[in-house]
User: Fold these one by one.
Assistant:
Number 1:
Amino acid sequence: MAWRARLLQEFAAICAVDVPLAARTSWNIGGCAQVLASPRDVAEAGRLLAWLEREQIAWTVLGGGSNVLIADAGVSGVVLCLERLNRLEVVAGTTVVAGAGCHLARLVAAAAAAGLGGLEHLAGIPGSVGGAVTMNAGAHGQQIGDVLVSAEVFSAGSVATWPRQRFDFAYRHSAVDTGAVVLQVVVAGAPVAAAELRRRSRAVLERRRVSQAVAGRSAGSVFKNPPGQSAWRLIAAAGMRAARVGAAQVAQQHCNFIVNLGSATSAEVVELMSRVQAAVVEHSGILLQPEVRFIGTMDTAARRLFAPPQQMLESRE
Ligand SMILES: Cc1cc2nc3c(=O)[nH]c(=O)nc-3n(C[C@H](O)[C@H](O)[C@H](O)COP(=O)(O)OP(=O)(O)OC[C@H]3O[C@@H](n4cnc5c(N)ncnc54)[C@H](O)[C@@H]3O)c2cc1C
């Protein structure tokens, strides 16, 4: 029996076939998932993932879609959607338990209401809690990894509790890589008056409103900041402000954002990012690394940008 039929036999209640993914991303770009699976709780997610591994069926996780570029050709295998894992609970007044599918904004608001400091600078970052932990999302010197206590993570065939140390958090990096899925997290914050936390979050949102006032759909910063440098400054200095390929354009207002002017394709974004990367190497000798992640079948151009051979990286350094 073909793999899709076997999957539907086992998990019919949570699977849908040939599901368009563009609307599930902040860029509004990308093709379809062969199957989209939306488990209803942590246990079901664990069972599904273990089954997929046993059956050797390819799978990928899509969180809030605010930091991904999805291939125009779509994604083969199963795309895991965790939006139903949306539990959010303040425990003993000091910690918050949040499902991976919760909006990060809900977690930030719940922590503020409970008087738990340490997440207020994450206000305004789109996406899910699971995506934020995977990317170690952050702003203004605060990252989610700073407040994470532990998480339920699927890896190597089963769900286990990972303590914070296991995540190896660094700038926009965690040890949650291919093959691991964050399903639920526990975060703890230092006690701060709720009114003060709300004031700080409002200030962060205002700063964001001014600095990120880009017209068009984006995925936030497309490149990581190299140590001690700002990617947007390097891109501006290389003359790439407002550079355009098709309907993908480097934002006027923030050169590290690429906006979809309406009907941009994944291939156009890849081409524009590659041109920006080449211009910055030419101008400053620095090879910018993508912050956004690519999901789906890679063509040569996408592979060169998102999974460059080590040799190429070394020769450009
Ligand atoms: C306007 C705008 C502003 C932004 N500002 C910031 C900012 O200030 N700081 C910042 O850090 N980021 C920022 N971002 C980027 C983005 O919001 C964050 O990286 C966010 O945390 C991504 O979460 P997500 O749920 O959308 O993940 P997705 O984009 O869906 O996924 C990102 C990656 O994580 C993987 N993933 C998602 N969920 C899981 C999971 N549960 N388990 C394992 N892997 C998973 C995906 O496979 C993918 O590789 C911004 C984006 C936008 C559009």
Note: Confidence is low (pLDDT under 50) at residues 311-317.
Number 2:
Amino acid sequence: MESIFQKTLKNEIFLRGRGLHTGLECGLRICPLNAGSGVIFFSEDMAPTMPIPASWRFVRDVCHNVTLGREGVRIRTVEHLLSALAILGVDNCAIHVTGGEVPLLGGAAQEFLDAIDAAGTILFPGKRTVLRLSRPVWIDQGERYLLALPCEDFRVSCSIEFANKAIGYQACHFVVDEEVYRRGIARARTFGFAEDLEWMRERGLALGGDYDSVLLYAKDGSVKTEPRYADECARHKVLDMIGDLSLLGSPLRAHIIGHKIGHSLSVALAEKIALSGDARDSAMQEFCGSAQP
Ligand SMILES: [Zn+2]
């Protein structure tokens, strides 16, 4: 049963690994924070004392990852860690990043779940703000769309479609809670296409990663990595989306329905929900206060 109270970590977490995009060795130190603080990133290399809240307001890039930033400081690939923190209800923590990117680790959220489980969590007396919708909110970008419907729990219906036959059409549906996430979503890895690698590397993307942590597909439809689920790509899209929607700053109760979804759609949906006036994110407002991105 999901807690109605705010939560933080009992102990600090230390993790190291290569960044998917920078290819550099990156480090994480995640520390407990008091209730009402939210999830806050700090760049240890660039500006160790400047808070970068995990909020849609601080998103600076949504191309093949979510990058948060403030005043020229950037932290890349925050989405898998945010997804794990969100599903375990860790509302408050400080994430100190070295190397400018959250490590890819296994390419999914399992290693982050394991680290949070090992660190333990504690509850605060303060209740969580839960966001509910009274009317549908949607974003459409041509054939790609993402729709949030009012719902008393959090459920996701997601489909993707790629010309690459190894992926093709995949659809999945989850009424998401911690158990469902652990069983069916946490181990779904990020994926990519061998033919895109050159283009991405010219732009400083995908310099890290390997065949164990990234599901890599070739043009001819062959798979370089053995999938864990027949619909692993669609499941990974759900994992990403849970991380992206956590940028609202509070858990969302809604039925999310999407086709060909990606970070640009889900971050735009988070912004539209936050600005709709229909749902309130009071906890994040409290911390950000007058802070301008
Ligand atoms: Zn991802």
Note: Confidence is low (pLDDT under 50) at residues 281-293.
Number 3:
Amino acid sequence: MADAKQPSFIARMRAKLNRPGSWLSYDLANLVPGRKIDAEVLDELETRLLTADVGVEATTQILDELRKKVARNELDDVDKLIAALTDAITAILLPTQQPLNINTHKPFVLLVVGVNGSGKTTTIGKLARRFADERKQVMLAAGDTFRAAAIEQLGVWADRAGADIIQQQAGADPGAVVFDAVTAARSRKADVVIIDTAGRLHSQSHLMDELKKVRRVIQRVEPSAPHEVLLVLDANQGQNALTQALQFHEAVGVTGLVLTKLDGTAKGGIVIAIARRLKLPIRFIGLGEQADDFGEFDARAFAGALVSGNSLSAG
Ligand SMILES: Nc1nc2c(ncn2[C@@H]2O[C@H](COP(=O)(O)OP(=O)(O)OP(=O)(O)O)[C@@H](O)[C@H]2O)c(=O)[nH]1
Ligand SMILES: [Mg+2]
């Protein structure tokens, strides 16, 4: 998708993913100087990947690739190692680079799910802003009726984006709110309706059942919907995010992922583990609390930012 903001977003991603000391790329260049790229260097790299939560499967795949290249004498300096590492990571991420297209249905119904505090409501605010900038008519549904503050928080984002909001009192049945919202979105001819839900642990089966019910209510109003079930994952959760994804997927059929809080996490390698394991589209990433700290997932740019960070300005 053409996106004028994308270059500056990539620049910010490079800056934010690579806080000194927090990341696998830290000192990658210093790992090697004066040394050959040998088994010892690769072992150190392997440890870094595992520490950054890249996971055993993806790390093995990446290291196999690099070891083959070393055996063929193709990696004789650090620049080549960095390039080969970036390529190996890109190869794992690329299948998940599938931008969300909301032009397939009107209204496009987007259900947002995830554990407590993963960044669902913030992501909805960022999405509302993004779609509004694309001149879409956006409606938000305050399906998190658990806390009054949650409804207010969504209201603030709706105001900022100039989006409509459908809400009821705290404590209301989320299914009722969602029913109203999808019905209103149809009658007002909104382009997209984004449904917020209360955070829940994948292990809380009654709350997962509530989510299934919300899904059924949506379908009653609009049989083709939801058109996207977006699971929001906090990258700081590391391997736990993988478990959450598997369980939410089983309960409500996730069709896309958002990875949040990639700013300031040492566990951002989880994106690679998730891509390798789940093969679900990664639609967007979050790099902070503001509307601008958000962008479409770009596999090569992400891999480049991860590996080279700020040390390379081009690209
Ligand atoms: N640094 C950073 N903070 C974020 C990001 N996304 C969300 N946050 C912050 O994380 C906190 C929780 O975000 P919410 O959007 O309220 O999370 P939620 O999933 O809606 O939470 P519940 O409704 O309680 O389940 C807030 O303080 C957000 O500002 C991000 O990408 N980076
Ligand atoms: Mg919320």
Note: The longest helix spans residues 205-221.
Number 4:
Amino acid sequence: MGNSTMKAVAVVPGEKELRLVDHPLPQVSSETQIKVKTLDVGICGTDREICTFVYGEPPKGDNHLVLGHESLGRVVEVGGAVTRFKIGDLVVPSVRRPCSDPGCNPCCNDKQDYCINGQFTERGIKQVHGFMTEFYVDDEKYFTYVPEELRDLAVMAEPLTIAEKGLAQAYAVQKRLPWACTDAGEPLGKGLRAVVLGAGPIGILGAMKCVVEGFDTYVYSRSKAPNPKAELVEQIGAKYYSKYDITPQELAAKVGNIDLIYEAVGGSEVAFDVLQVLGTNGVFVFTGIPAPETRLEIDSDILMRRIVLENLAIVGTVNADREAFENAIADLGEFNKRWPETIKKVITGRYDIADHQELLVGKSKGIKNVIAFS
Ligand SMILES: NC(=O)c1ccc[n+]([C@@H]2O[C@H](COP(=O)([O-])OP(=O)(O)OC[C@H]3O[C@@H](n4cnc5c(N)ncnc54)[C@H](OP(=O)(O)O)[C@@H]3O)[C@@H](O)[C@H]2O)c1
Ligand SMILES: [Zn+2]
Ligand SMILES: [Zn+2]
């Protein structure tokens, strides 16, 4: 390998192949860009799905797409006009980049997570190379600063942003009512009950966020307890229930009025089962992205009556803005203070880039797996 290339994990959709490629070393080419040396890259279901070639689009003119959208790195070079970072800083990058349509208000206002036309791009997913490589370059506005004490945790910032944005939306919706009678300085969820569906990384990090926000928090998932995910859930003061042990109706009877449901299972059947027990004036946040396979029969009249007569709100949420990244870093710091041992255990494995095949197309294992580049 020469000096001008680096190793990268990439899919080649035309050949239906996942492999290590020699990828050009990126260069800082504008005054506001920074160059980052990769430290950690998280692997998630999205990466594994891209490896089945259902989506994942290389940049125009390339036959391969470098994977990776959950990353932590260290700044090694800054453009002349960079103001927010210096060499040596730890940073996490966001994923989505705006479309070029001047009529897309969200993209024109740094809210590309709400892009109206689908023409956005996403690093490691859609038309821009990702972070599963040794260095990357991007505009400073797409990065968030990470304090040094979060060196071993901040690769989880991106999956945590899903909960950050989800809860921000729930709060925005619930401004419609005196949802929380909290005093100044008290967390917004105090006195309220949240159910998190699923105990994967999105669910566990979401449950941690709910606990920090003061909710009485319950996780409803698949595997029977005891299991490692249920243990993590119990360690943060939330309660874990398997759907094989109690029905959604039994769950609701235990919990009381369910004020918030944060869905992180990715399956519509269990999601719609649990939607039926959302409490009066409650909000249901969908984050899961199922493969379009399941068709359900539901008691639609009953559900519609409840949505109307009990002021239920249902929101979907995808991707995240810079505020969500900043909140994720702040909350990882809080999780680390409250549960230093538990938060570490969400990362169940650190691997070498050489293990990419096993991690991306082998049997799914653990909770959050990371490729370590340092
Ligand atoms: N909106 C966004 O921007 C965004 C971003 C990233 C990911 N996502 C989505 O978020 C979802 C969760 O991601 P993840 O990485 O945490 O997934 P994951 O690791 O697959 O975890 C899913 C969790 O849900 C449980 N589960 C699966 N099917 C179930 C069922 N039928 N009934 C009850 N529990 C069930 C699993 O139980 P076991 O523990 O027994 O396996 C597991 O705990 C995915 O759909 C993903 O596509 C959305
Ligand atoms: Zn991901
Ligand atoms: Zn747009």
Note: The chain has a mean pLDDT of 96.
